[in-house]
Amino acid sequence: MRSLLFVPGDSEKKLAKALESGADALILDLEDSVALAAKPQARSFVTAFIGETLARAVRPRVYVRVNPLDGGLTDADLDAVMAAGPDGIMLPKSLGAADVQQLGVKLAVREAESGLVDGATRILAIATESARALFGLASYAGASARLEGLAWGAEDLGADLGSETYRLPDGGYTGPYRLARDLMLIAAVAAEAAPIDSVFVNFRDEAGLRAECVAARRDGFTAKMAIHPAQVPVINEVFSPSPEAIARAQAIVAAFEASPAAGVMSVDGEMLDLPHLKRARKVLVRAG
After folding, report:
1. Which of 137, 182, 264, 266 is the most buried (most CB within 10 A)?
2. What pTM does this model have?
């Protein structure tokens, strides 16, 4: 996955339009973008949308962002949507492995009740939405086989910290948010989960979005969340390896496969070792 588009669950029009966005995954939102009074209707819309989307021959992956575990609404969300068989659940306000495991238990029960394959429903966790959550990042490694990705976000963290802003005048992140971003990236890789970059809220600033995508890809992120369909093409473009990058990765892998006993290999006049091979294989995974 390169692009994950948030879609308010209470808008049938936006749900339908999201299918035309080209996003690799849709995150059907039952949390922040849906008012409390609208949540029952949103659950109904989302459940119907999942069933219709899964019937398509070609489709995006479909996740549902449920409400936080401590808010008293998670079970109602899961009771409504799990029978439709979404690809996964996005867990907001996650504090660490224990939250992922608690959600996993809830999913296992509902998979059994709905006749779904045990473990089929994956989990994406937003792992930096409070100061406390940052101290749980190391716990995700080995937490659950369901854990597919970790994402980070600045909005809720900013509210928790009481920050005046999380952006510098040049558009970069201030210190606490840069720290949260980098720690989450490292935690995701340690947990063998996809590292997913945060949303870029100014959806009219294409240049700013592109720059942030390039920086995220450079550092090791493999995907980015979007809040508007117009952001999806840029995200998909930046997070897709270029033909040149693919060709070089193929050459590196082929060279090492031709001499499996070698620890160091010369490719195009450059001496490369096993970390280069590992990086090349990751490029090919992203390309494929």
Report:
1. 137
2. 0.89
